[in-house]
Write a structure and sequence with these properties.
binds copper (II) ion; 12 strands; mainly alpha; two-stranded antiparallel ribbon; Tyrosinase_Cu-bd; disordered N terminus; binds 2-acetamido-2-deoxy-beta-D-glucopyranose; 405 residues
């Protein structure tokens, strides 16, 4: 049985497994959300320097990752028009290539882009609120970047969407979504009078109300206005507190890409203060990944939920099908960047120590499952090769050689 995101959370909270987090101090002024951007930049700069030192030391021991061949992932707004266009063109190329997934496994997977969506749908309940949440998505995003490069001739790196910036400037005013040829496509067509999205409406927890955004309909202009979303929905939250799912989310269900960019959701949940808190407060990866995804009953959807729900629309608000919106990868690259900054504050402990990998193999441990270990494999169906988690803990080792700027 498929259950909606918050319904699963409710189940667990009712069992009392998770305690609600202590509420942080709240502020009515927007000022910290601006000044904390500088604080994050400074931590990101420290992480960059720490990574440089690690790479130089590893190089002396014969590592192939060196500062001369390292890939640097950059924030979308810092790319030139040519770079933005070449990223978008590569994504469109992936969407034009046939799927590797056989129809017997996922009849709705029509394109190479869909291979990634199908595998995410297939594994949703064993890759979120699990011990492998961060490593699974790190390698998923990297496999996608590799596919763009190896199969579509892209020579750049995976860009990221810095929600701290759009929390202040407005996500619907960002150049990521301005609808030009140099964007990830526009907002959805405006639908007036949309009700709030209500998370956890049918659970025992206090519901979370998310204001609808400035779109709601099909993406109007830009590269993905003609895109076909082929898979899902599996648990799509809609304004008004309802949700939709089809019987088989791996079946073919072609429809337009919808967005509902919500400045309010971005500003409330994925602002510089919440990002900074997520980097500085948690001392174990368990606390880090729980804060990031939102502790059930804690009244906060975390910066991970904040990014997803500020994108909104279909499949943006569907935890299973969310990679069906190509902006997913800019969001998850930022998630990975926050993890990387957190790891670089204490690299040996936070990449390989006992606090670096915690959690079990099932969504909120329902049903109860074994603890995730470094030797466990993460799998990707037809999107790419499986890998052991121990190879995915550092962005400078195993298959990886990248940093964020
Ligand atoms: C962006 O969203 C705000 C509401 O947060 C709205 O007032 C504004 O008109 C929107 N701008 C665009 C360009 O859609
Ligand atoms: C920014 O995030 C913090 C922490 O999550 C939250 O308390 C605050 O209300 C948010 N700021 C705004 C302007 O919503
Ligand atoms: C799983 O991890 C938890 C918390 O880190 C620990 O208390 C527990 O003993 C572990 N269980 C097993 C079977 O190793
Ligand atoms: C879904 O997962 C199952 C079990 O691991 C696997 O056999 C199947 O091929 C996967 N399907 C897709 C579309 O990835
Ligand atoms: Cu995911």
């Amino acid at each position: 049985m498929r259950v909606s995101f918050l319904a699963v959370l409710a189940l667990n909270a009712a069992s009392g497994v998770l305690a609600a987090p202590a509420q942080g101090t709240t502020t009515t002024s927007a000022a910290p959300e601006v000044t904390n951007i500088d604080e994050i930049s400074s931590l990101a700069q420290d992480a960059y320097e720490q990574a440089q030192e690690l790479v130089e030391n590893a190089e002396k021991r014969g590592s192939t990752c060196s500062w001369s061949n390292i890939r640097i992932r950059r924030e979308w707004n810092t790319l030139s028009k040519t770079q933005k266009k070449s990223y978008v063109d590569a994504v469109k190329c992936l969407q034009a290539k046939p799927a590797l997934t056989p129809a017997s496994a996922a009849p709705g997977a029509k394109t190479r882009f869909d291979d990634f969506v199908a595998t995410h749908i297939n594994q949703t309940l064993s890759i979120h609120y699990t011990g492998n949440f961060l490593s699974w998505h790190r390698y998923f995003t990297w496999l996608y970047e590799e596919a763009l490069r190896e199969e579509c001739g892209y020579t750049g790196t995976q860009p990221y969407w810095d929600w701290a910036i759009t929390a202040v400037s407005g996500v619907n005013k960002s150049s990521i979504f301005d609808g030009t040829a140099y964007s990830m496509g526009s907002d959805g067509a405006y639908i007036a009078g949309q009700e709030d999205v209500v998370l956890g409406a049918s659970s025992g927890l206090p519901p979370i109300y998310l204001p609808a955004g400035s779109g709601g309909g099909c993406v109007k202009t830009g590269p993905f206005s003609d895109m076909s979303v082929n898979l899902g929905p599996a648990a799509l939250d809609l304004p008004g507190g309802t949700s939709v799912s089809v019987t088989n989310p791996l079946a073919w269900n072609p429809r337009c890409l919808k967005r509902d960019l919500s400045n309010a959701v971005n500003t409330r949940y994925a602002n510089a203060t919440s990002i900074l808190k997520n980097i500085l407060k948690p001392q174990t990866v368990y606390d880090f990944q729980m804060m990031m995804q939102g502790v059930p009953g804690g009244g906060d959807i975390g910066i991970h939920g904040g990014g997803h729900y500020s994108l909104g629309g279909d499949p943006g608000r569907d935890v299973y099908t969310s990679p069906g919106d190509p902006a997913f990868y800019l969001h998850h690259s930022m998630i990975d960047r926050v993890w990387w900054i957190w790891q670089m504050l204490s690299p040996s402990k936070r990449q390989y120590g006992s606090i670096a990998l915690q959690g079990t193999n099932t969504f909120l441990d329902i049903p109860a499952s074994a603890n995730t270990t470094f030797n466990d494999y993460v799998e990707y169906g037809w999107a790419g090769e499986k890998r052991q988690i121990k190879d995915l803990m550092s962005t400078l080792d195993g298959p990886f050689c990248y940093v964020y700027l």
